[in-house]
Write a structure and sequence with these properties.
By secondary structure, this protein is α+β, with helices and mostly antiparallel strands. Helices cover 63% and strands 11% of the residues. It has helices spanning 2-13, 19-129, 131-135, 154-157, 167-181, 207-224, 249-255, 272-278; strands spanning 139-144, 147-153, 188-193, 232-238, 257-262. Strands 1-2-5-3-4 form a five-stranded mixed beta sheet. A hairpin with a 2-residue loop joins β1 (139-144) and β2 (147-153). α1 runs antiparallel to α2 (19-129). The longest helix is centred in the N-terminal third of the chain and has 111 residues, at 19-129.
Length: 284
C-alpha cells in the first residue's frame, strides 16, 4: 500500500519536476524501502530471538522444577538412608554387646567346667587314697553341700559321753594322718557332730562342748601323725546338722560322727580375684 501511494505521487509529479529531482526522489524511496526491509528483518530476528529466549526460559523453568523434585526425592532417600544407618549401627552395637556377653559367659562356663573337672578328679583321688580304710569300714568319703569330707563314726573313736580316743581310734587316725599329710595344698577342718540326746556334765554342759572336745582330740592326733597344724582347724555342730533321723538308734549312731572336711580352694573358682580384692589382710 505504501509502495503504490509513493509511486502515484511520483507519477503525479512527473510532469512538474526535472529528471534529476525525479531520480533523487526515486533513489531516496529505494533507500527507504531498503531501510524498511532491514527494520522488518531486524524486528523479525528480534522476535525470533525473543521467542527462542522465552522457549529456553520455559525449558529452564521446567528443568528447575524437575530438579527441585529430584532434590526433594534425594533428600527423602538420604534421610531414610540415615535412619537405616542409625538403626543398623544400633543393631550392630547390640549384636556386638550380645557377642561379647556370650564370649564372657562361655569363658566363665569353661572355668566352671574346669573347676568341676578338677573337683571330680580330686574326689576320685581322695577315694583312691582312702580306699583301704573305706573297704575296712573305718570311714567314708562323701560330698556334702559341695564339700568333700572324710567321715568317721565316733562310736569307733570314742566311748559314749567321752572325748578320749580309743586305741583302735588312735590306730585309725594315724592311718588317716599319713594320708592327709600327703595331700598337698589343702587345709582340713575337723567337725564334731552328736545325736540329739542331751548331755550335761561338768566337763560337757551340752553337746556343743562334747562335739568340740572330740574334734580337738582328733585334731591333736592328726598333728602328731604328721599333718601340719597350720592346715587344721576344729569346730562343733553338736546335734544341729544331723545326717539321719534321730528317732531310731541307727539314725542316732549315724549322727554321732567326726567329719574331716577338705577346705575348698576358692582360687580355682570364677570371681576369686574380685573376692581377693575385698579380703581383709590378716591382722587388719
Amino acid at each position: 500500500m505504501r509502495r503504490s501511494l509513493a509511486l502515484l505521487v511520483l507519477m503525479g509529479l512527473g510532469g512538474c519536476v526535472t529528471q534529476f529531482r525525479y531520480d533523487q526522489a526515486l533513489l531516496a524511496y529505494s533507500e527507504a524501502l531498503q531501510d524498511n526491509d532491514r527494520l522488518t528483518a531486524a524486528e523479525q530476528a528480534a522476535l525470533a530471538t525473543r521467542l527462542q529466549v522465552e522457549s529456553e526460559r520455559d525449558a529452564l523453568v521446567a528443568d528447575q522444577a524437575t530438579l527441585s523434585e529430584a532434590v526433594v526425592a534425594c533428600e527423602a532417600e538420604l534421610e531414610q538412608a540415615r535412619a537405616r544407618l542409625v538403626a543398623s549401627a544400633a543393631d550392630a552395637g547390640e549384636l556386638e554387646a550380645d557377642v561379647e556377653a556370650m564370649r564372657e559367659a562361655l569363658a566363665e562356663l569353661r572355668l566352671r567346667k574346669q573347676a568341676a573337672d578338677d573337683a571330680l578328679a580330686e574326689y576320685r583321688d581322695l577315694v583312691q587314697r582312702f580306699q583301704a580304710l573305706i573297704d575296712a569300714g573305718t570311714l567314708q568319703v562323701r560330698v556334702v553341700d559341695g564339700r568333700m569330707l572324710v567321715e568317721l563314726a565316733t562310736d569307733i573313736l570314742f566311748a559314749p559321753g567321752s572325748a578320749s580316743v580309743s586305741a583302735d581310734g588312735e590306730a585309725s587316725l594315724a592311718s588317716v594322718a599319713t594320708i592327709l599329710a600327703d595331700i598337698p595344698e589343702r587345709d582340713f577342718q575337723i567337725a564334731g557332730h552328736t545325736d540329739n540326746v542331751p548331755i550335761s556334765t561338768q566337763r560337757f554342759p551340752s553337746n556343743w562342748e562334747l562335739g568340740s572336745a572330740r574334734a580337738i582330740a582328733v585334731l591333736r592326733l592328726l598333728t602328731s601323725g604328721g599333718v601340719d597344724a597350720e592346715r587344721l582347724s576344729a569346730t562343733s555342730y553338736a546335734q544341729y546338722r544331723p545326717a539321719a533321723d534321730n528317732d531310731t538308734p541307727a539314725g542316732r549312731a549315724r549322727n554321732r560322727r567326726i567329719e574331716i572336711v577338705v577346705v575348698p580352694d576358692l582360687s580355682s573358682l570364677p570371681g576369686f580375684d574380685e573376692l581377693q580384692s575385698l579380703a581383709v589382710p590378716r591382722g587388719g
